Amino acid sequence: MGYTIAQKIIREHLVAGKMTPGAEIGLRIDQTLTQDATGTMAYLALEAMHVPRVRTELSVAYIDHNTLQCGFENADDHRYIQSVARKYGVRFSRPGNGICHQVHLERYGKPGKTLIGSDSHTPTGGALGMLAMGAGGMDVAVAMAGGAYYINMPRMFKVNLSGKLPPWVSAKDVSLEILRILSVRGGRGAVIEWGGEGVKTLSVPERATIANMGTELGATTSIFPSDEVTRAFLRAQGREEDFVPLESDFDAVYDRVIDIDLSGLEPLCACPHSPDNVRPARELESVQVSQVCVGSCTNSSLRDLLRVAAILKGRRIASGVSLSVSPGSRQVLQMLADCGALSDILASGARVLECACGPCIGMGFSPASGGVSVRTFNRNFEGRSGTRDAQVYLVSPEVAAATALCGHIADPRALGAYPEVTLPERFLADDSGVLLPADEAEAANVEVVRGPNIRPMPLGEPLSDTIVAPMTLKVGDNITTDHIMPAGAKILPYRSNVPKLSEFCFTVCDETFPARARAAGRSIIVGGANYGQGSSREHAALVPMYLGVRAVVAKSFARIHAANLINYGILPLTFADPDDYDCLTQGDELAITGVFAGLESGKFTLLDKTTGKSFALTCALSPRQRDILRAGGLLAYTKGEGK
Taking every annotated instance into account, which residue ranges of this chain make up the domain Aconitase A/isopropylmalate dehydratase small subunit swivel (predicted)? Predict the structure, then answer.
């Protein structure tokens, strides 16, 4: 039996465990990336491990999230990250240099390498044939320190593409189509490999859009073959020497195979408030729009923005629409300017924002109250835009441009002939926006600079054999990390100040939760299916830990969030019978006894002391995870192991 692409990379990087689906494996990590919303805590953890120098082949710290400097907080974080990166051997991508995934794809991604990043859309690197995965910042810190990254051996899904995309249909529509097929839960525990003859018609930027959006399936990662299309992209970036051919074996076996005919697709939209709520654009033309945003790590490549510029050229956006365009990198912005496409964008009435995540995480350009915003982004969770009652639709750059011109959601095929766009054979390769670290001799003299908003890393407490605590919160299905720990310009600046950040925990669901959790001291949260969906932000586990949450009981968990809960000493427990969820009421006094025995057996009992009812729970843990929980979290465990 042959190997899939992912299995080949895993086999070459395996340092612990066996490649049995569902079993825990440890992988050697070649590259890491961090961004500033999660990076501060990751580097605080790295410092606490007392490792003098990172041990990966390449680690890069990107500044792309918290770029609005309305006070000193974000600037202080940037200064801290720059100084700690210089000291510990990490490259530092300056503010304005671009979005981490776009820049990493352009300048650092290599076929066959492993990459983890403290951002859930790190799988974008799969467009180059990398095994690229999102992870919590603590896991990234361990990898930078030379430790393995642990996941459960994933299942293998294959998407066979045939045909070719018709005019006005793009890679974003492929992403929305697979979300329509699988849903936001359908990829959990799996690697999505893209293949078939249709793959050869997709450029690397198009593949990157699809790999990026695979995160919304709940997948471990997505991956494409490294082929002549990959070679051409790397050659255009001036680094053809990084090319390595990589494809699956002809007799590789997959757990599921899905066929998609590219030629049969049409422009699609994801409606509020979930990326899998997909409908054809032609069915939504009655939806009036007040805002359109083009950009994010999903659709901010030169190819995407040249297409938008060609559609807007000689036209003006509708009077009731505000259009923003955010290039994914300084390289993209400079090349748009050099070829004149930037002028076409500006002449349409668009507002050009800096090369950063920006509106995608609610960092500026929030919609008006009750506004309808059409975005080329990857998530449309409620409140994520920075406006709680906004209605956000996810679309391709083509649909976005047509919508901006028409003032309502528009099928771009009505605009006529599809404008041809030709990409240059060579891209601008200017790495001056990335600062190199000090050499090892100089590093000892580098001072790490901390501002007053940077607080020490909170530590968890060792697990106890009995947990008796009130249920301070009960939430439903598909609770995202944006529900647990909101983003946005008002909250993100406190990512390095957990006491302050805790004031916002779960306030999207219940504004009284932080005060109630503090008053309880210890507490338990109950959730529905796919709890913790969305970003890799470890703050969604770190802050509840700080507020005294000792266990989360849910119908099921998203992969990264479950790992983050364990990393911070919180028990992620699953109902043996999902219907038991309905029997529990917020405010009930709960008890979990025999915790240590449960760690070994994987079976726990939850007693509702208020009603007297008992419920069976499960929690499948590896020996390593048991030890992490006993120690009170990954940091304490890692320091105790001397890793």
Answer: 521-577
